[in-house]
Amino acid sequence: MMSEAPFPTVSNFIWLGDRFVETLDLEPAGVRRHRLSEASGQFSIQQRTAAGEHVLARDRLGVNKLFFAIDGEGGVHTSNYRFDLARRGFSPEAIWSVPSGHVVTIDPAERMLALEKYADLAFNEDPTESARPTAYAGQIRERLTAVFRSLAPVVGRRPLYVSLSGGLDSATVGALAREFVGEFTAVTFAVDTGRSGLHSEDLHYAARLAAHLGVRFEPVVLTRAQILSLLDTALIYGQDWRDFNVHCALVNAAVGAAIRDRHAASASAAAPVLLTGDVMNELMADYTAVWYNGREYYRLPRLSPGRLRRFLVSGLDAGDREVGVFKHFGVDVVQPYALCAEVYASLPASFIESPQAKQRLVREVMGDRIPDYIYDRPKTRAQAGGADEITGTLAVLADAGIDAAALEQRFSTLFSTDRARMRQWIRAGFYRFTSSYPTGVTHAALDA
Amino acid sequence: MQRWTPDTVADELERFIRHQFQVPDDDTNLTRETHLWEAGYVDSLGVAEVIAHLEETFGVRIPDEALFSPDFVRIRGIAQIVCDLRAKRPEILGRAS
Fold first, then answer.
1. What confidence tens digit (pLDDT) does each residue in A179-223 have?
2. Residues 49-108 of A with CB under 8 A from B
3. Choosing a second label site near A214 at 20 to 30 A (CA), which of A105, A231, A379, B43?
């Protein structure tokens, strides 16, 4: 029979303007939408009302994931991990996602399900507004400062880590964390190349930056075999098979395992928390394809950056390469840029599409708090490892013959489904969801 | 002004899909009833391109809720969704188109 033991839950970091809270009271129904629309941050909420309804809500960017399934007796089962529900015996068709920025209300007695959107991120697609960063820097600086000031009492008493790649996004997070929160340990991933001290450009720049900030630096260097041993973990807890997410989930699995091991050896009882520079690339459409051994990876929809960012941001709904993977290792993740989404979304398309947009904006916002060598460095992605030489998880998997099709196959095996059905789980960056009460096979639960 | 009906929207959408995803004109497997995602004519990246094209061409905003609608998998169904969305737009209702 199915176990009723609760699943482990991903932590909420709900920002209500000047403070963080762990949950929201979504009763009565009349205030639900307003209360949710006031909240920023990352959360997944499951509550039972006095009337017996199940209320499920998820943050507007979909940083935290939330899945549910309804069994044959009308019992509603929820988890942050799809895998938990699969292990409990639900068939793939019986598992649904709560989409980002939505609240789902389920009344099994009435066989009723209502899906309501409570928040929408408004992107400024005006092609004529000013492309000068000075016009927006003040607002962004103000928001970032408020976020980090509010974070200080929440994360400052816990073992604090910042994921540094040596790039602009994480450098900004590191600099602001140092200024407003205090000391932390910088962690940076690299693949062991066998060349002492020359594992990756990321490592080199991150080490320099950590020294500049006056914080402890901890490289996480894994051999190719060690990285490959983490693949199933990356697939299951990263909740995605697409290569751009799996390669990144592998980086995070390596870092998460290192933090877990380090924390296990420390005397602190508080769970570690990690700040990352994620979400900024989506908000500024700052992604490009990567070429390795004559093949193109991380291809993007053929849209202008000003239009693309909306799809990149909504695509955060699917894939759990950060929060989900790190939580598996007992590490809470906070993504400060997710708390600033509205101000970044208000940047006009004309600015997003202007040359060196991010560099110019960050320089305007952060000034000399970030050293010049970080501004001047070509953009890289952690899973690539460097701009000039691809040394990251992309190369590890590609060289091992684990391509996109192999990832898809392995994921389908782990989740006991076939690839054709699996492809129905994600569409346009959203996990599969429903706007009506599941019927037929969709609510048939199987005994584990 | 172009008068859009389910048939003309479908025509335009098929033209876009054939062009954007390099489907030969003589590929008769692509019909108004073909499941675009299962048949592999449009992949996960292509969905974003289809949505962006629909929104730009027909002046509608495809809601998230449409993504997993059983109609949003075939050209005919998508065309109907677009026409329904246009009909709900107050500024469209008052026009001759």
1. 999 999 999 999 998 776 666 788 999 999 999 999 999 999 999
2. 99, 102
3. A379
Q: For B53-74, how does the pLDDT look when each residue is reduced to its tens digit (9 = 90+)?
A: 999 999 999 999 999 999 999 9
Where do the structural domains in chain A lie, given as residue ranges?
A: 13-120+417-443, 134-406
Strand extents, DSSP E, B5-91: none
CB contact under 8 A, A242 and B52: no
Q: Quick check: A428 and B68 CB within 8 A?
A: no
The distance of B19 to chain A (nearest Cα, Å) reads 13
Instruction: Provide the whole-model pTM.
Output: 0.93
Residue A281: both structure tokens together: 């690339």
What's chain A's average pLDDT? Answer: 91
Q: ipTM of the predicted structure?
A: 0.88
Instruction: Check pLDDT > 70 for residue A385.
Output: no
- CATH class for domain A13-120+417-443? alpha beta
Looking at domain A134-406, its CATH class is: alpha beta
Q: Does residue B22 fall inside a structural domain? A: yes
Residue A273 burial (C-beta neighbours within 10 Å; 0-12, 13-18, 19+): buried
Determine the pLDDT at residue B92: 47
For position A1, what pLDDT does the model report? 36
- With respect to residue B36, please indicate whether it lies within any of the assigned structural domains: yes
Give the CATH number of the domain where residue B87 resides.
Answer: 1.10.1200.10
Are A287 and A299 in contact by the 8 Å Cβ rule? The answer is no
Report the C-alpha gap between A205 and A268 in whole angstroms.
29
How distant is the Cα of B7 from the closest Cα of chain A, in angstroms?
25
Position B60 scores a pLDDT of 95
First to last CA, chain B: 6
